[in-house]
Design a protein that fits this description.
CATH superfamily of chain A: Glutaredoxin
Keywords (chains A, B): Endoplasmic reticulum, Secreted, Signal
Strand order of the largest sheet of chain A: 2-1-3
Shape of chain A: elongated
CATH class of chain A: Alpha Beta
InterPro entries (chains A, B): AGR/TXD (IPR051099), Thioredoxin-like_sf (IPR036249)
Largest sheet of chain A: 3 strands, mixed
Number of domains of chain A: 1
Subcellular location (chains A, B): Endoplasmic reticulum; Secreted
CATH topology of chain A: Glutaredoxin
CATH architecture of chain A: 3-Layer(aba) Sandwich
Number of helices of chain A: 6
Structural class of chain A: mainly alpha
Protein name (chains A, B): Anterior gradient protein 2 homolog
Largest interface: A-B, 37 and 38 residues
Organism (chains A, B): Salarias fasciatus
Radius of gyration of chain A: 23 Å
Helix content of chain A: 25-40%
Oligomer: homodimer
């Protein structure tokens, strides 16, 4: 290799390290998704404030879904939830949706305590629908994989907005 | 085709439509990312509550970045921000990070108003570092693409935690 070619290589190496995209020491990561596997084709709100805003402005009920990545009950529900076409379509067309792994500061979102998985509906009037419950008296907002039909029924209840009931 | 084969086809079609993953009427979407292009290799907090929790528990400063997808100033800053290897590495190793498109209910995050792009640092003691500002007196927490060096200097300031200054 000539001296000129060697210089060129050095310059190219220097340039490439300057403009190289950052890669963590531990190796390249898969970018985080907002859906976290609960429906990759759905449009998720990022925060509760954002969810409330969308719910009001679109006049659609908000579903808030609390879960944890290392909770086997959450993971089991997630699989059924993501695979159910009717549920996914209804959420996409008629709901504003938010999934959270950290509790908010709003105590209304934990009517009977903080646990996962837990699904709370909020009316566009910003009223938490504490009346829409699952089948477990000790964890009223919990759902198991077998409860998807009940969840679909509860979604129908949430779609009957409070204002129209007045 | 025999009657048996025709029945089999019908059953398969019925099965595939039952188990088909949901696809929106408007066509398949690209799943939303938490980074929104500000650093796909970084680990982003989803909400302010989550960011504060990580900041306290890891004793690292939190950077909160307000932006909008349809704001050209945000988009111009994003490009420089995502491409700067030093900035991305420092954020990954020494910061907790959060990008938001909707304002939170915490007024401390808008010391001189709500505008984008806006970058606010929060100390692990949960004190908003209103003292760490950019170069524009009318929008003290705004940065332009040319201000990346200043932003890096401000990140160094944020890394000097308030507790150690007492």
């Amino acid at each position: 290799m000539t001296r000129a070619a060697a210089s060129l290589v050095l310059v190219l190496v220097a340039l490439s390290s300057t403009f190289a995209k950052y890669v963590p020491k531990t190796g390249k990561r898969i970018p985080q998704s907002l859906s976290r596997g609960w429906g990759d084709q759905l449009i998720w709100a990022q925060t509760y404030e954002e969810g409330l805003y969308w719910s009001r402005s679109r006049n659609k009920p908000l579903m808030v879904l609390f879960h944890l990545e290392d909770c086997p009950h959450s993971q089991a529900l997630k699989k059924v939830f993501a695979d159910n076409t009717e549920l996914q379509r209804t959420l996409d067309e008629d709901f504003v949706i938010l999934n959270l792994m950290y509790e908010t500061t709003d105590k209304h979102l934990s009517p009977d305590g903080q646990y996962v998985p837990r699904i709370i509906f909020v009316d566009p009037s910003m009223t938490v629908r504490a009346d829409i419950v699952g089948r477990y008296s000790n964890r009223m907002y919990a759902y198991e994989p077998n409860d998807v039909k009940l969840l679909l029924d509860n979604m129908k209840k949430a779609k009957k907005l409070l204002k129209s009931e007045l």
